[in-house]
Each structure stands twice: as C-alpha cells, then as structure tokens.
Specification:
Elements: H1 4-16, H2 31-43, H3 46-62, E1 69-70, E2 77-79, H4 85-100, E3 104-109, H5 136-155, E4 164-169, H6 171-183, E5 194-198, E6 201-203, E7 213-215, E8 218-219, E9 221-223, H7 229-235, H8 238-244, E10 249-254, H9 265-273, E11 278-284, E12 294-298, E13 301-305, H10 312-315, E14 328-337, H11 338-347, E15 354-358, E16 362-363, E17 370-371, E18 378-382, E19 395-400, H12 402-405, H13 420-437, E20 441-443, E21 455-457, E22 475-477, E23 480-482, H14 487-491
Parallel strand pairs: 2-19, 3-4, 3-10, 4-5, 11-19, 20-22, 21-23
Antiparallel strand pairs: 1-12, 6-9, 7-8, 10-14, 11-14, 12-13, 15-18, 16-17
C-alpha cells in the first residue's frame, strides 16, 4: 500500500500534467483498489503520453501539407521475379551460412486475437482447416525446424543450428499463447529457444488528450500498435538476450500470413548482401487502386505511403517495363540488424504515433457510471512497425511472388477475401506447385475437383519445395497428406 505522502506526490505529478481526473474516484476506493490504481499510475510515464498525443495531433494536421512522394531508388530494389536463379542461389547461400552460424533470429508479431474469425484465442492458435488441422503457430514452428536442418545439412555444420524464436504478444494474449506452446511441447522446438514477450500499452484518450478511466480503479489502455515492438524489445530485455546469443540479424513478420517463409534464407542473404540495416519484403501491387500501403520515398525518406494518400494519376504511373512505379506493396515482413534495433532508442522520441478513432468504454467522471458509446468518442494511439523506415541509413526492398509469400488471414470464414478458406486454398495450391516443380502431379480423387483438393505437405518435409525429388514422374491422388518423408511413397499411385 502506498503511503499518503506517496499518493500526494503522484497526484501532484498528474496535476502538473493536467491529467488529475484519473484520481476522481481514488478516495472512494477500497485499499486494494487504491493500490491497483496507484501501481498503474506510478508505472505510467504521463509526460510521455502527453508528448505522444501532442505530436500525433500535430502530425495529423500537417500530414498532407507539402507531401512529396517519389519512387524507390533503383539501387535499393530487387525482385525475385526478375533475378536469375544463380543470383537467388547466391542470396540463399549467404542466408544459410548466417543461419548455420546461429546469427539469425525470428521475431513474430502475434499480439492479436482471432475476434474477427469468431475465436477469442490468440490468432496464432487458429486452425485454417488444413487436412492436418495444424495451427498457424505450428506451421511456422515446423518451418523453423525444417530450415534449421537445411542450414545444417547444406553447410556441413557440426554443432547445433538454432533459430531463436521471439514471440511478441499483447497483455490479453500472453498467458494463452504461453499455455498453447507449453501444451504442444513447443512443436518440437527447444523451450529455451522460444521466448515470449509482451508489447506495451498506452492509455486511451479523449479528443482533448485526457486519459479515460475504464473503471473507477483502472485506466483504459490498449496495445501501442505493432510498432511497439521496438520499445518492447528493450523493455522486455530481448535486445540483451539477442546479444547474449551472438545474434546479428532478425527476421520479423506478422502471425496471420499463412505462407510466411520464416527466416527466409533468400531474404536474409539478400539483405546481408546489400549491407542493409533494415529491409522489407514486398509483393507486386495487383492494380493501381488496390487498397494497400506502398513502400516509397515520402519527403525524400523511406516510408510506407497509404493508398488513400495517392492521387489516382500517380498511383497509375507505370515504369518503362509496364510495372507500376509505385507497386511495392507492403506486407509487414522485415529484416533488421540487431545494431539497428538497438539504435531505435536514439530516435524514438521522433517517431510519430498514429491516431485511431475508437469507441472507448469508460466511467463517467460525474456519475461514476459505465459508458458504452455507439460511435467513436476518443482515440487510441499506435505506432506502426514501418515507422522506423525514415531513420534507416541503408534500406533495401525485395519483391517476392505474392502466391508464394503472402496470404493474410483477416476476415471471418465465408468472406471470400483474406479468410480461412483463401488461406487454406493458397497453402494447398503452393504444395501442388511444389510437386509439379519436382516433376510430379496431383490429381483430384473421388468427390474432389482440381481447384478444391484435400492435399498437404508438412513443413517438416519441405520448406520451399526442396526434398521432393522422389516425386519426379509420379502421380498423387487426393485426398493425400505428406507428413513425413516416408509418406511420399505411400501417397504415390503411379
């Protein structure tokens, strides 16, 4: 329990910050409730909250003033769609070497819940309906296991190859995420190499920047956006752990991309070869009006320009080769050097938070009654993971094939766009292509059609199509699942 003197000091601090309303009900609370509220207020940097609010409002007001958009420089952009096979092999070799030397880690942004999908569990626990019924977490864990083996076998490394996996959760999803991993034995990974940490929060604010109370004894707070990763890496001692493990490079991505190539050695090697301190995977924008953010230069600095900021004429501008000039669609898939991640603290105060208008449940300060608004009544402030791009010294952008690298899970089943059905379809289609590239074919069995197959290849068998050489000249009839190398012979019918 805080002393009265400690409470008075904290009240004075909040009064100077003009946020004294958070103490409105303090004297009427039970001692236990007072202790909870005091602890929350004591840990909150209220001056930082005020600075973030003022900068966010100022940035919003000036965001369209003197906005200059220009294309990415040619020397920082490459595409696997245009690169020769030998160049891609060169990048892959560099990546596999670094992985084999245990210099590469992965950071998974997994703070979201599956609310839109009809689930209250963390989104990574979601089963998209593959024949194996593996969750997103399991698919990604098994890709790590397979890649560790590929790196070890390819380079002839004698020791253990480890790709450490750092899983960023939010407050509401941390316990459930940890329990899910524990109950599934970390999907074959070693427990010490799966590190769960938590992103930060910021208070929800009124339009005038006043902190809402969710209850009489609790502030209304929300996660600080996926860009909160940078402060969380520091505050949760992840940067220290990375250094202790000798890790130099990090691959970061979002949990809801079912096709993600975790720690992709081609992307890692490409970024290292470009001497990049930060780089991004992108996919080719499908058409000028596609509602996606694009990586370009904003006022001369690398950034993501939202589709709503583009003039239609500029959005449709084409290069000499016919591709869109502004066609590098952002998919939140990034490479960093650990040195760059450490450097973020130096310019953190310059990062601009974004305002999201929201319906904020809160306690009325006059009546003490809970209010559940039916329209937006306040704001949550978020930092996006790409907000550090303007501060990079050596940025690189690699375009990849959308059908092999990007299929987001955003919407409820049956939506028809970015939903479990499209995620499942895209993985199965990719696995069919793996077989075809190996020289085999997959045909529909009874009751199935070629565009709706029951088929799956475990990531433990193939990371990106390798290891399927035994299928050359062979035919597989669905339904079929290749869960182990031994299953390859079992599913072949001719």
């Amino acid at each position: 329990m805080p002393t009265q003197a400690e409470v008075d000091v904290l009240k004075a601090k909040y009064a100077v910050a003009q946020q004294e309303q958070v103490f409105t009900f303090y004297d009427s609370l039970s001692p236990e409730e007072q202790a909870v509220l005091y602890d929350q207020l004591f840990k909150l940097d209220v001056d930082r909250v005020n600075r973030i609010y003022k900068k966010a409002v100022s940035s919003l007001e000036s965001s369209t003033i003197n906005l200059s958009i220009s294309p990415l420089p040619d020397d920082c952009f490459d595409s696997v769609l245009d690169a020769t096979e030998s160049k891609q092999k060169e990048w892959e070799s560099i990546g596999l070497k670094s992985i084999s030397e245990n210099k590469v880690a992965v950071i998974l942004m997994a703070g979201g819940q599956g609310t839109r999908l009809g689930s209250s569990a963390p989104k990574g626990c979601y089963d998209i309906g593959l024949p194996s019924h593996k969750s997103l977490f399991q698919l990604q864990a098994e890709r790590i296991l397979r890649l560790q083996k590929i790196a070890k076998d390819t380079t002839g490394t004698q020791g253990e190859v480890v790709i450490s996996w750092y899983v960023m959760t939010s407050g509401p999803t941390r316990a459930a995420t940890e329990a899910f991993f524990q109950s599934h034995g970390y999907f074959g990974l070693k427990e010490e190499n799966v590190i769960v940490f938590e992103q930060g929060t910021l208070p929800a604010l009124t339009d005038k920047g006043k902190i809402f109370l969710e209850t009489k004894s609790k502030l209304a707070v929300a996660p600080d956006g996926n860009g909160g990763i940078y402060a969380a890496l520091r505050n949760e001692n992840v940067l220290t752990d990375l250094a202790s493990r000798g890790i130099l490079y990090v691959h970061a991505y979002c949990v809801d991309n079912c096709l993600v190539r975790v720690a992709d050695p081609v992307f890692i090697g490409y970024s290292i070869s470009k001497n990049a301190d930060c780089s991004a995977k992108v996919v080719r924008k499908a058409y000028p009006e596609e509602p996606v953010g694009v990586i370009a230069l904003r006022n001369g600095k690398f950034n993501v320009v939202e589709y709503s900021e583009f003039d239609p004429t500029l959005a449709a501008l084409a290069k000499a080769n016919g591709q869109l000039e502004y066609g590098a669609a952002n998919i939140a898939n990034h490479f960093y050097t650990v040195a760059f991640l450490k450097s973020v603290e130096r310019f953190e105060g310059e990062l601009e938070y974004h305002i999201a208008r929201k319906k904020i449940k809160h306690v009325d300060l006059t009546t003490g009654e809970l209010q559940s608004p039916i329209k937006p009544n306040g704001m949550k402030m978020e930092l996006f993971v790409f907000d550090v791009f303007p501060f990079t010294e050596r940025m690189a952008v690699l375009e990849v094939d959308r059908k092999d690298d990007f299929s987001p899970l955003k919407n409820a089943p049956g939506t028809g766009v970015d939903d479990p059905d499209t995620s499942r379809r895209d993985i199965i289609s990719q696995h069919v292509r793996f077989v075809e590239k190996a020289g085999g074919k997959v045909v529909a069995g009874d009751g199935e059609t070629q565009d709706k197959l029951t088929f799956e290849i475990s990531p433990l068998v193939s990371y990106s199509g390798e290891g399927l050489e035994g299928l050359k000249g062979k035919t597989i009839r669905t339904p079929a699942v290749i869960e182990t190398v031994g299953d390859i012979e079992k599913v072949v019918i001719s």
